Amino acid sequence: MKTICIIGAGRVGASAAFALVLKGHRNIHIYDIDRKRATGEAMDLCDAAGEPSAVSAWDELKRADVYVMSAGKPRTADMTRQDLYGFNAGISEPIFRRIAELNPAAHVIVATNPSDEIAELARKHLKNVTVSAYINDSNRAKIVFGRPVKLAGTHSSRKFVGLAPDEEKLIKEYNGRAAEIIGLKGCTQWGVASEIAELVEKMVKP
Q: What's the domain count of the chain?
């Protein structure tokens, strides 16, 4: 069974772990500098799985097959993703260096914002790096535009391919949707957690 490590026990990390548990994954490990929170999340997720060792908390990073990077400062409604770069880069790069020491062939999924730029930091040290954003952004675009839309660009600066002239007025609504959700409930978590689970599924298939 593949080993999955969730780095960051915040809302995104815990939600991703829950999505993986619901899909039947076990051998999941949560790492966070807040050891108590990581332990609590692991215990709660074991209750959800009905298995005492389905999810554990790690006191330090260990070797895994898949790492999900979700640690870092979350975005607030008045911030852009780019506003987070300096702080989150400082947290992320030492972790990527450590992962490279533990398992340079590991798959790394980057959810920490700004995800494309943080993924570039990961690629300085690791080969198998995936940005978590495209599936969630595609789902969001489908809701706003009322149909599937082909996307280009980055998570922080999405471009839309093949929009009709009367659809361009909806770009502002798309761009503001995440901030609106954050303003209403304090974060976005379920869309990215669902995407992470889907990406992990592909990575751990035999």
A: 2
Show the CA angle centred on residue 190, arms to residues 185 and 193, nearest 5°.
140
Strand partners, 151: 160
- In this structure, the answer to whether residues 24 and 111 fall within a common structural domain is yes
Identify the pLDDT of residue 77. Answer: 76
Domain that holds residue 173: 136-184
For the chain, list residues with pLDDT below 70: none
How far, in Å, are 19, 45, 68, 167, 197 from residue 132 at the CA level?
15, 22, 9, 26, 10
Burial letters 6-19, b for 16+ CB under 10 A, else e: bbbbbbbbbbbbbb
pTM passes above 0.90:
yes
Q: State how beta strands 150-153 and 4-7 pair.
A: unpaired
pLDDT of residue 201: 94
Element (H, E) at 123: helix 115-123
Residue 44 to residue 26: CA distance in whole angstroms: 14
**In the prediction, which pLDDT does 8 show?**
97
Both tokens of residue 153?
């660009």
**Sign of CA pseudo-dihedral 92, 97, 102, 103:** positive
User: Do 157 and 103 reside in the same domain of the chain?
Assistant: no
Tokens of 73: 């400062």
Query: Do 70 and 168 sit in the same domain of this protein?
Result: no
Judge if 180 and 106 occupy the same domain: no
Tokens describing residue 86: 């300096």
